[in-house]
Amino acid sequence: MNVTPLHPVTISVVICAYTDRRWDDIHAAVASVRAQTHAPHEIVLVVDHNPALQARLADSLPDVVVVANREDRGLSGGKNTGVAVARGEVVAFLDDDAVAAPGWLAAFAAGYDDPAVAGVGGLTLPLWPGSTTSAELVSAPVPASTGRRPRWFPEEFDWTVGCTYRGLKPGPVRNVMGGNASFRREVFAVAGGFSSGIGRTFHKRPLGCEETEFCIRLRQRRPAAELLYDDQAIIWHRVPVERARFAYFRERCYAEGLSKALVTRSVGAQDGLASERAHALKTLPLGALRGLGATLRGDLAGAGRAAAITVGLAWTAWGYGIGSTAGARTARAAR
C-alpha cells in the first residue's frame, strides 16, 4: 500500500458486510483493494448490526477501519455510515462479494481530473458458479476462471446479478451501479445520503436502486454535476448458485419493478425512468432478435435467452405496476 498514486486524489474504499457466511468473500475484497496500483487512502469496512462479525473482522483485519452500521439495517445505512467515517476526497464502494482489478482505483482517480465529475462507476463482470474461489482470490485477486454462464441467461439482464449489462456504453450516464461506484465526498452534503427506504434491507424481496435514486437526486440538486461510466474500472462480482437460476431471475426482475416505483415516487417518473425506457425500447428488442438469430444458426439456447428477455421485461413491468398502485393508495390515504 506504499505505491505512489497515479493521480493525487485520495480515495477511501467502503465495503459493507453483514454475514460471516461471506467471510472468505470479505477478505478477498479487502485483499484486492490492498493490491491497487493507486493506493487507497483507507479501507472502511461497515458491519450491518452484527457485533460478533464486527469483532472477528476487526481482529483479522487490523489495518482496516471496521465500524458498525450507525443507521437503519441495510445497505443504504451501511453506505451512509461509511461516508461519515471516510476521510478521502473520494469515496468508492465495493461489494463484499466482489474483487477489484489492480487498476480499479487508478481508473476512478483519472475521472476526477475533471472538476465537473461528481461520480465515476465501473465495469462489473460476473463470477459465475464454478469460478475461482474467494479463498484463492485472497492471495491472487484477479480470478483465473469466471465460471460458466447459464446458456439461457441474457447479457442484457446481467444487472439482476449486480453486474454491468449489455447496452451500457462508457461516458456520461444518469446513474452508476452501486457495487462499483465512487463519488466526491463533498456531494453527499449536497444530495444527502442513500435513502433507507430504497435498496437492500431486511426485506424478503431483493430490492435495489438506492444508488439510482441517489444519483438522480444529486443531479436534480446540482444539474452541472457529471456522472461517468468507465469500463476500465473493473471488478468481478460473485454470483451464487441460487442467483444463477431462473426463479431468482424472475424474482429479481419483479423486485426491480417495485424498486423503480419507489424511485419515481421520490424523484419523478421523467428522471426515474429515462434510462429504463431506452433500454426497454432499443436494447431488449435487439437482444431478443439476437437470441432468435442464434437459434436459427443452431444455438438452441438462443431461444431461451430471447424468452428470458421477454419474461424479464414483463416481470419488471408487473412489479412497477404493483409498486405504483400501492404508492398511489398510500398517498391517497395520507391525504
Automatic annotation (TrEMBL):
The keyword Transit peptide does not apply. The keyword Transferase applies. CDD domains: Glyco_tranf_GTA_type. Keywords: Transferase. One of its GO terms (molecular function) is transferase activity. Pfam families: Glycos_transf_2. Residues 12-122 form the Glycosyltransferase 2-like domain. InterPro entries: Glyco_trans_2-like (IPR001173), Glycosyltransf_2 (IPR050834), Nucleotide-diphossugar_trans (IPR029044). Gene3D superfamilies: Spore Coat Polysaccharide Biosynthesis Protein SpsA, Chain A. This is Glycosyltransferase family 2 protein.
